[in-house]
Structures are given as C-alpha cells and as structure tokens.
Amino acid sequence: MRLNPSRSAPYVFLAPFAVSFLIFGAYPILRSIILSFYITSGPEAQHFVGLGNYLYLLRDPDFWTAFRNTVVFALGSVLLQLPLSLGLAILLIRPDVRGRNVFRFIFFSPNLMGLVFSALLFTLILAPRFGLLNAALHALFGLPSTTRWLSTPELVMPALIMVALWLYTGFNMVYFLAALQAVDGELYEAATIDGAGRWSQFWHVTLPGIKPVLIFVVVLSTIGSFQLFELAFLLLGNSSGPDQAGLTIVMYLYQNGFLGGDLGYAAAIGWTLAGMVLVLSLVQLRFTGTGREEA
Amino acid sequence: MRRAIVYTVLILFAVLCLVPLLWLVVSAFKANADFQAYAFLPPLERLSAGNFPSLFGQMPFLRFMMNSFFVAGVTVIVQLFFSALGGFALAKYDFAGKRAIMGVMLATMMIPGPVLLAPMYELIYHLRLIDSHLGLIVPGMVNVFGMFLFRQSMLSVPDEMLQAARIDGCSEFQIFWHVVLPVSRPIVGAFCLIAFMGTWNSFLWPQIILQSSDRFTLPIGLNQMVGVYEADYGALMAGTLLAVLPVVVLFFLLQKEFIAGLTKGAVKG
Questions:
Q1: Residues 6 or more apart from A42 whose CB is under 8 A from it?
Q2: Among A26, A48, B138, B211, which one has the highest count of C-beta atoms within 10 angstroms of its own C-beta?
Q3: Interface pTM (ipTM) of the complex?
Q4: Which residues in chain B are closer than 8 Å to A88, comparing Cβ atoms?
Q5: What pTM value is reported for the model?
Q6: What is the DSSP track for B17-33?
Q7: Do A179 and B35 touch (CB under 8 A)?
Q8: Do the chains contact at B93 and A9, CB–CB below 8 Å?
Q9: What pLDDT shows up at residue A4?
Q10: pLDDT-derived band at B230, boundaries 50, 70, 90
C-alpha cells in the first residue's frame, strides 16, 4: 500500500503546460526580442538593423499619433468608467434598494455581447441619419441627426470611449460589488458613532476597504485600454479613421507588421508597448503605495 | 427623496444598457428599407424574419458558425483539461521547482499579447498552420490564468480525501479525475464560460492568420460582411444576434459559477 504520492506525478501533470510554454511562450518571447532588431519582409526575408527599429519608431509621427490616441482612450476609459462603476456599485449595495440582482444583471448584460459583436452593433448605432444615437439625440435634445461620429476626427475617440463605457462599466461594477460586500460593516457603525458624514465614511472606510480591488481594477483597465485594437479596427477599418483619429498602438503594430509585412518592426512596437504598460503599472502601484506596505 | 434619486440613477443607467440590446433584436427583424424610416421600432406588422434567409443565402454564415463552434469547442475542452491538471499539480503536491514554475506563469501573464504576434505568426508560418483552424487552437492549448483559477479552488479540497483515495488504490491521475475534478464543478463551469467567451470573441489572431472565407470564424466573417454587403443592415444585425446567442445561453446555464469565478481571484487575493 502506497500512501505517499509518487514523486513524478506533479511533473507529469505539468508536462503539457511545460511543453506548450516552451514552444508558444518562451520561444516566441525570445524570438520577439531578436526579431525586433531586424527589418523583415514577411517571414522569410530579414535584415539586421540593431536598434534601428526603435529609433525609427521614436521619430515616426504616426507612432506618436497612435500613442496620443491610445492615451486619450485610456484616460477616458479609466476616469469616466471606473468612478461610474464604483458609484453604481455603492448605490446597489444599499440595503434599501430592491431588485438588486435585476439591476446587477442588466448592468452586466452588455458584456455578454463581447467586444467584437458590440463593435458590429455600434457600426450601425453610430451611423449618421438612421443610427440610433443620432435619432435619440435628435428626439431628446433636438440635436442634428447628421452627426458623423466615425468620420469627424474630433468625435472618433469620444465615440470609442462611449462604446467602451457601455460595454465595461457593468463588468467593473461586479468587482466593486464583491469588494464592497467584503468591507466590515462594523467599521461603518463605528464611523457613524464617531459622527462621520457620508463623504467622510467614503474616504476613510469605503476606499481603504476596497483599495486592493480598486488598484487591481485600475491597473487592469489601464493595461487593457493600452491594448485597444478590436473596437477601433471594427468601427473604422484598416484605414484607422479620418486623419488617423482612431489609430491606436496595436493598430499601428497590425498595419506595419501584417499589412506591411515587417514582422521585425511589429516586434519592436510590441516591446515598446510592453515597456509603457510595465512603467505605467509600476507608477500606479507606487503611487498608491501598494509595494511599500509589504516591503 | 434620497431613495427616489437612487432609483432614478439606477433606472436611467439600466435603460442606457438595455436600449442598444433591444435595438439589436428589433433590427434583426427589420426590413432594410425601414432603417431610415423608423429609428427604433417600426409598426409591429412590418417586422419579419426575412433577414435570416438572406443572411444564410448570400454568405456562408452557417459555415462561419460551425467554424466558430469547432474552434471554441476544441479550445475550451483542451484548455479545461490541461489547466485543471496543471492547477491540481500546483495545489496538491510539494515538489522541487514549484515556486519557479509559478513565477514563470505570473511573468507570462504580465507580457502583453501583442508582443507575441510577430514571432507567433512566424512560428505558425513555419509550422504550415497559416489559414488553418489548428493555427488558432494550438497556440492557446494551456491557459495560465485557468491554471491559477483551478489551483486556487483545488487548494480547498481536503488532503484526507486524496489520502483516502490512495488507500483505495487510486492512481494519482485517478484521484484527479474521479475525486478532485468532480468536487471542483463550480470552477469548471466558470472556467468553461470564461474560456468560451474568450475564444468566441477572439478577433486579432484569427484576422491575422485566416485567409480563405470558408475557414472564417464568426467575428471575421461578419466583419467582412460590413464591407461587402454595405447596405444589408438587417442581415448584419440578424447575424450579430445569432452570433451572441450561444454566449447568452451558456451564461444562463452557468451564471452563478461565472460571477464566483470572476471575483474569486480579486477578492480572496
């Protein structure tokens, strides 16, 4: 009778992960670094340029357009979406609100559409003349129904932010709801006894209570926003919209690497994106003091 | 008074969430000519299911759907098996190199996907899997997030259960298959839904490697339709509605598990 597990069992169970990781994780990561030092033309022809790709990228105005658009989208998403998500979660957590589960489901429901099919839906909702958005704005506020959301440069990013708001607010709210439920109710009682008002309770009890989840959601939303592609691509097509108003960093990568065929440059763009995401995450963690508590 | 404000805000946002979804359903049954005339709801007698025959007639929509089901189905089953097995090993065994493996897994999750697009394309090209469904399935066989999810949930399976099974003569794999996996049913449900939604909605990678229209998945095929059949709005909405139905059905079957799985990592840390 054998009561000790065999020593080899965990290694056997992890073998599929190990094999898959070596081929489709470790190898592409290393290959990507090497590739980023080459100019390529499809997968067969390549030419070593050292840091040339990175230097070219920093001087390419298109990259900076993509960078600016991506930052605008990320700021718009995080600064509009997350306060709204948190606000809705705080309203829903009130014990005197009825139909909490119904509201929670409705707020979450756009997520079932998924990013791609939402984008397809919004190609028509945002259309001038017969689009739902213009029709609603016309009926409610008398605004002209000819607004061309996706072909007016200044309106492209607001339109994308609006779609993302519709899609993700309820998703993030689910995280906040879970976090709020975990905050110790006695802390609120103590705060009330100490004479703390609603705002004071929010700042001194709620926010510290949900801080780990809040940071998690902020970092995750930022990382996700920086990888914006599908929404812009599906709504605007290959051309990335009027005056490249919808050009994002990943779209820039796609255009150069897979429409232009320069995989080396695509790898360099990828690592530049990875660097930006890493720095941003570290700044956010440092700014909120997450690293320091453990140190 | 205060409660009235709370309800007003909640209802207003609920309406904003629902109206586009209702518009999708209505538009799927709306004739193309009526898109101009009726922004939201035409008179009910003008609605018809006419968009669906033209959807299936003018494009290989059924083919897209079958392709999507094949790719998503195989991916979910393979990912489920390997992620659960790996998560089990990490949760229930002590072995040399465990911390290193988990460190590597975490590091992998930190690297943004777009970094790997170019080398992965090169790799899939050399494996001769461009324009194939295998090229979609093979790179995603193991889901690292899923391994963490299963590890987290399997940590709470008592060791005594495993020991009892060992006394009964079970092999280590039989313990996983007959004891640990069955008690992890909720997390299996959550994972299936998350993995299915991820694959079903996958766009960038299929857009890069698929070339022939008879291999297209739904997202790629429907997006193609926007360009080619510019004016057939009704059929596009009918297609979009049909494309999201499987996710909706799966969600209703698995929703309790899904919400639990979604928030597990975040709240318990």
A1: A261, A263
A2: B138
A3: 0.91
A4: 9-10, 13
A5: 0.91
A6: HHHHHHHHHHHHTS-TT
A7: no
A8: yes
A9: 64
A10: low
